[in-house]
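Researcher: I'd like a structural prediction for the single chain below. Treat it as a standalone chain; there are no partners to consider.
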Amino acid sequence: MRTIGVGLIGYGLGGRAFHAPYVGVTPGMALRTVVSRDPAKVHADLPEIRVVPSVDALLAEPGIDLVIVSSPDALHAEHAIGALQAGKHVLIDKPFATSLADAHRVIAANTSGRVLTAFHNRRWDADFLTLRRLVADGQLGEIVQFESHFDRWRPVPADSWKDARDGGSWLDLGPHLVDQALVLFGRPEGVTADIATLRAGAAAPDYFHAVLRYPGRRVILHSNKLAAAHDLRFVVHGTRGSWTKHGIDSQEAATAAGRIPGGDDWGLDPTDGVRTLDGAAEPVANSRGDYRQFWTALAAAINGEGANPVPADEAIQVMEVLDAGLRSAAAGREILV
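Model: Treating it as a single chain, here is the predicted structure.
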């Protein structure tokens, strides 16, 4: 297997915690260049890595096969299109773009058939893998209500572009929840969304409550940054039983703290979910989460030895639901998908 040279655009939380550490442990990948306006910040973690000041400089570097777009959201489409036009494989952090029109522009720019993927890493969370197992095994029966939360306790808005991004939480945390729902249930018939700004002084929406309508099923996606009690993750009701999960996957916190992915305890979630059947509740041991599976699959896809872990058409489907949610909130009604 040849080595895949990687260029990383951006070294904020995404680049530092979600991308660079995983490239470093993925066989057949090598991080070679980072785009950043703060070389000292990069070199504090990665002293041997070349740092360049612009995307154009990155694309002129020799030996770059894969470009990871982890820049501010509004630049995702521009940076992805530039990398595709330069003949690079491209991984785009979520959201894939800030509008459905820009997402289609990215797809259209891939005229050379490079691997184009979206970083929907939450498919490899411990709790979500556990839920997929329960659904696939039929342990809950036919799912009739699915509730997914990403709540936070951040009562004071941060003075950063992230808390002022267009679409607010819906385009920040929403892509994770939408993608997981689509993986489980496919495309909904309609979307009804309430997207609001609840914190005083917040520059962008910090609350959403979206209902995805399916025949015989309702999927509820919820986030609130004014939730002091914020550990509820999933509530799932089926025709045979229910499953409730508190707590969040441990992998983000581990890499944000500087840990290199790996070890016997990597991806272990110590908080078991609870399955209730006929009124009797019992803990359900979690599957092991592992974002490394995404990266291994991406390397195989680039080398022509496997499937794209998140194909671009699946990223577009997420964008279609996100777009429907924005239009629903603006119009105050359901939007058909």
